[in-house]
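pinned: reference chain
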Amino acid sequence: MPPAKDPEEPTEPPLFTRDFALVLATQFTFGFAFSSFLLLPKFVVTELHGSPSQVGYVGAVAVLAAVLVSPACGKLLDRGSRRPHIIFGSLLSGFAALGFLFVTETGPYLFAVRAAQGVAYTLYYVAAGTLVADLSPPSRLGQALGWFGAGGLLMNAIATLIAEGVAERFGWHAVFWAAAASGFAAALLALFLREPERAAAAAISPGDAPPKAAVSRHAVLWGAAAGGTAFGALFTFTQPLALSLGDSNISPLFGGYTAAALLVRLGFGNLADRLGRARVGGGALAVYALVVAMTAGLSRGWLAPLGVGFGLAHGAFYPSLNALALEGVARGERGSAGAWFNAAFNGGVLLVTFCFGQVAQLYGYRSVFLFVACLCAAGCFVVLGQARKPLSRSALVSRTP
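pinned: its structure tokens
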């Protein structure tokens, strides 16, 4: 006869609630607006006749803006609610997309519009990700963030596939109009979001922390930056490299990337929660290093397989490290923790897009990928050094705020 269940044993709240589903809906709509501009390197090369360094600068401006506003965004989130930031970020994304209707060259105006997109992304993503952490049980934080990110990943494939076809048939202005409409739709959906009461999501007191060595936040941020360098290199410089090899259709890269990343997050979403977030994140960085190194030998027709490797790495990396950064953090500090993680990741992207554009122009795109692979390998060892046994399910449930 099975033992009687302790009536005082805490029960884990469900993950898939009405508000979690609504956050996912905003992620789909905002993600379409954001992902439509993943083809921006192609627009810069084919429509504005930009050089490799200009491709890098255009990508860097948005990331620089995202890094600069991240600390302030985190402090605001710690003091107030999440929903206003989600709404404002979505609206700003829509207006920035409309701003591209007037882009005719790679000049100050283009950089200003890209900066607005960087601010919009930070406002939305940090606020929405923090709300996901508020809504999810601690023992399923990695899975929750993985599902949240999966909404954006799905749009990486759908939006780029649609945008590339629309651009060829109707021109790039039609792409910008569609992205603007999607950003405004995300703001409309966010109006119906409800946040948990602050008292119901009380901070975890220091005395509740497990008697184990705390994860080094600096190590987590280092790993986030290393992953950012890989992400920035693969998304920014793979497109012009493929175009120079004769590939005119870039969407297979995003299709393979999205399919593999979704497989990881939907099929193995709780892997990091079970095996340890540092272990999975460090292993994913090792895969990242391998994929980036292989990109240095890219040849025509291999964008789809490259995208698959890219997706396998990123699908496991980002939610694992993001959950590690938020692990055990009190509600009143989650905004800052998430913002600094976002800033570190984007800082890695910025390093590649801003500094390595000139390297690509002088020594070729392949040299960039080899150098970035070394950075990823270094980040892998730093994160794996933080690996420790995951908390038991009962311990995690007992610490549910």
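why pinned: The chain has one domain: 18-193+213-398. DSSP finds 16 helices and no strands in the chain.
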